[in-house]
Write a structure and sequence with these properties.
- The chain is an alpha+beta fold.
- It folds into two domains: 1-41; 46-130, Jelly Rolls.
- 29% of the residues lie in helices and 37% in strands.
- The strands form two sheets. It has a four-stranded antiparallel beta sheet, with no helix packed on it.
- The longest helix is centred in the N-terminal third of the chain and has 38 residues, at 3-40.
- It is rod-shaped, with a radius of gyration of 27 Å.
- The chain starts with a helix and ends with a strand.
């Protein structure tokens, strides 16, 4: 065996651990991408939530017991404006009389919905969740 052939074999032997480390990094990246896709890809199962009659006496709170939702469709059947909060978000959003809206999150993180109206008012809200 010539010295050139011996040197080539030595280089190939040294490169092998580098290739394995590179393949390991690629596999780790693929696992991260797969996990991200599993968390963010909608599954498309709709869950009808209880229709709520919201009054100003106390906020109506819906705890999502089965599993976190990715989106919630709200339909305010009226006759007044309803304000909703998702989870513990400090910002209320108004849902006007006869208005509908869908709230969507990139991942399934919706576990609590709080509804309220102004003092002395009431409204009926229909909700459908999706996970």
């Amino acid at each position: 065996m010539t010295s050139d052939e011996a040197r080539k074999r030595e280089i190939e032997r040294v490169k092998a651990p580098v290739d394995i480390a590179l393949l390991d990094d690629i596999a780790r990246g693929i696992r991260k991408i797969t996990k991200h896709l599993e968390e963010t890809t909608p599954e498309g199962v709709d869950v009808p939530l209880e229709t709520k009659i919201v009054t100003s006496i106390k906020p109506e709170i819906t705890d999502i017991a089965h599993q976190p939702l990715r989106s919630v469709y709200f339909l305010n059947k009226g006759p007044n404006t309803v304000y909703y909060l998702i989870n513990d978000d400090p910002t209320e959003t108004a849902l006007e009389d006869r208005e509908n809206i869908t709230v969507t999150r990139p991942r399934r993180t919706i576990v609590k919905i709080t509804l309220r109206t102004r003092s002395g008012e009431s409204a009926t809200v229909k909700m459908v969740g999706s996970y």
